[in-house]
Amino acid sequence: MTMHGAGVRVSTGAAVVGALIVWVALLGPLITLLAHLTPASVVSALSQPGAFQPLLTSVTASLVALAVILLLGTPLAYLMARGRLPFPRIWEAGVLLPLLTPPLVIGLLLIFMVGPATPIGAALSHLNLTASDTFFALVVAEIYESVPFYVLGAMAAFATVDPALEQAAALLGDGRWRTWRRVTAPLAAPGLANALAVTWARAMGAFGAVLIIAYHPFGLPMQIWVTLQETGLRSALPYALVLLVVALPLPVGAYLWSAHARRRL
Amino acid sequence: MLVADFEVARREFSVRVDLHVPAGGRVALLGRSGAGKTTTVEALAGLLRLTRGEIRLGERRLSSAGFPAADLRPGRRGVGLLRQNPGLFPHLTVLQNIGYAPGVTPAAARVAGERLGLGALLGARPRGLSGGEAQRVSLARALQTKVDLLCLDEPFNSLDRPLSLELLDLLRRELEDSATAAILVTHQLEEAQAFAHRLAVLHRGQILQVGDPHELVLRPATREVAELVGYRGWLSSGSQTMALHPDRVYPVGAEAGGEISARVVQVVPQGARMELELEAEGRWRGRFRCRSDRSATIGELMWFAAPGAPVFATAEEPGTALSAG
To answer: For chain A, what is the domain count?
Structure first.
């Protein structure tokens, strides 16, 4: 064994140990959560009357938010990825803005934009919608907090699809929509799934903007906040576990599926 | 019958094409890189808009500069395009790729795949295919679409030569069987001659000459065409330039009427023969090359005949043929 070989071995070992420390540190909060929970505390927290209502509220609001984001964000991400929009930087800035703005500030500004006392709020009231302390407001807040994650992720996913393949499909007789459905979407699907999963996790966990414009109805993050304020840190932990259990499987599943799908391409 | 008379603007020059291809006919478009060959077939396939003129195929108008909104979109024009990049869909199997075009049944795709020797690969995905196999799949896929004109943009250029000629031959037979017209874009004369009924020479966006693939080589109309079809020697005498093709210059004895005297500068083996590089020093002066069955010694003085070599006026650029044949 040469000195050089030994040096490489030592530095590789150090890198592995370093990576391991980072990994454990990142998982630390999850490990801590599980260490502090007893089965009895989870059962008692969840058996209180109305314990599941926040979960139901969060899941339905996030599903609606996700549907809206998917419907409006996908074409936008595709057009941006293909450079079909004039002034692309301006569009990108628009997508980045909600990401860079602190959620609390978004919530505050939403009040002044769509709150009941504003022209948009007045227009909404004609549709029997109120963007303050309603399910609708919760959905709006979740959309603002999570949409950039989807659009940026989807844009990256579409950028990986070779335009030459779309052209090949067109030459073989596919129109734009058929090309999109048969070539673009399947090839971008792994990336889209990842983007959607991250977006779901962000929507489920949205808090800052929600706190300001949708304090009611209680979603899970609100429930955690209120519980820890009223009855202390420990009693909020079971809800934290529920939030993770509901928010995480989709991202993890999407990650595993997209890794598998990418290997096949 | 394809009748194309159009112009497409490019950055350096406009590509002007006036081309007729009869039903079932095969035309090769010969030219250097950047001559406008790809632009031409992309316009035919509907990927580019015309700046002047129109393209008709049979009774249908495919594109026109006057009313581009009515241009038929790619895939609806009856024009196929096969390119150097096979463009296989990585998420589909070979069979699904071949059967991609609307209306192709899996059974028909299977038959087409087997016809091109892809039977064992039909269930595979494109990722593991060799270059030749991928190009075969692309070819089978293009042949499944019922087109009246197939444009071939140097489709087999990334393959080694024997394989590329084999695929071209295969393609020629398929086209003959289906009576499909074709335009082959290439910068290789042998490929063009092996494939096409007619040869069109494109240079800086202009078709300089169209003709029989053999005749055109014997009688290039201009010096540019002569260069593109393989003339390598340029001998001048006064205001005239004679173009010499290495395959059309013959060493002869001085008494046998040789008109060019030249000294051997270099001898290089070329395939089964030798290529001589020569410096002419009689009435005609300049360098040229000649293929010969026998070797020669450097410095040796030899006589050559070049029957039918085209002669151009030196002053005019691009030159006009004064005499040919």
So the answer is: 1
Nearest CA in chain A to B138: A168
What is the domain extent for residue A133?
52-264
| Contact yes or no for B30/B202 (Cβ under 8 A) | yes
User: Is A186 in Cβ contact with B87 (below 8 Å)?
Assistant: no
- Residue showing tokens 């002569």: B226
The most confident of A112-121, A177-186, B155-164, B309-318, by mean pLDDT: A177-186
Strand partners, B55: B4, B63
Q: What is the DSSP string of A229-248?
A: HHH-HHHHHHHHHHHHHHHS
The minimal CB distance from A165 to the residues B81, B89, B101 is found for B89
When scoring A161, A165, A167, A171 by the number of chain B Cβ atoms within 10 A, the one with the most, hence best to mutate, is A171
Indicate whether A106 belongs to any domain: yes
DSSP class of residue B2 equals E
The answer, yes or no, to whether ipTM is higher than 0.95 is no
* Neighboring chain B residues of A167 at a CB cutoff of 8 Å: 47, 74, 87
Q: What is the rounded CA–CA span in Å between residue A236 and residue A214?
A: 20
A236 within some domain: yes
- Whether A217 maps to a domain, the answer reads yes
pLDDT class of B255 with cuts at 50, 70, 90: low
Mean of the pLDDT values across residues B140-168? 89
Chain B closest-CA separation from residue A185 CA (Å): 11
B166, B193 contact by CB (below 8 A)? no
The CATH number that applies at residue A155 is 1.10.3720.10
Each residue of B182-236: pLDDT tens digit? Answer: 999 998 898 899 899 999 999 999 999 999 999 999 999 998 899 999 898 999 9
Whether A139 maps to a domain, the answer reads yes
Whether B29 shows a pLDDT value over 80: the answer reads yes
